[in-house]
Write a structure and sequence with these properties.
The chain is 54% helix and 0% strand. The protein has 179 residues and is mostly helical.
Amino acid sequence: MDRSRADQGLMNGFDFLVQNRIQAQMSNQHLPHEERSTIASLKRKNRSNTEIAAMTDRHRTTVWRELKRNSNPSGTYTAPAASKAAARRSAQASCRASRIAPERLEYVEGKLRTAQWSPEEIRNRMKLEGIVPISHESLDRHLWSDKKAGGDLHTNLRHKIRSYRRRGSPRERRGRIPG
């Protein structure tokens, strides 16, 4: 592949990304602002996603997904707008029980201890009262983590909290020749 002198200068400017890759390992999931600005500058030079991926040491699907998620409605990609959009999505993510606000947890634990409601009943009551609801799966995860930590929230449930077990024979059948 024949690169012009400007492209060689661009590559030298991005050497810090490769050198600092070991120090700034972000579990290969999140792109830092520097990489977003790199992607934006290479996209302005009409580079393909595969070339951008090779220069930034990312998979081409990661580059494609970044451009798809964070491009403007007009189709242009800018690093500041992409960083803001990613930060907004990260702040809105509510997939972990640790992100449940303490006042909502107090409400949930109060209903569990006093009224012995199920997680589904608590969620539905929160909707009726105008409180931002917590999914019953998140409440179940909170109950499990409390039980593992030695808490007593699970004792306030009407039904015993159980783990799932495998149905059928308890013996292992894989890797054996029958007979």
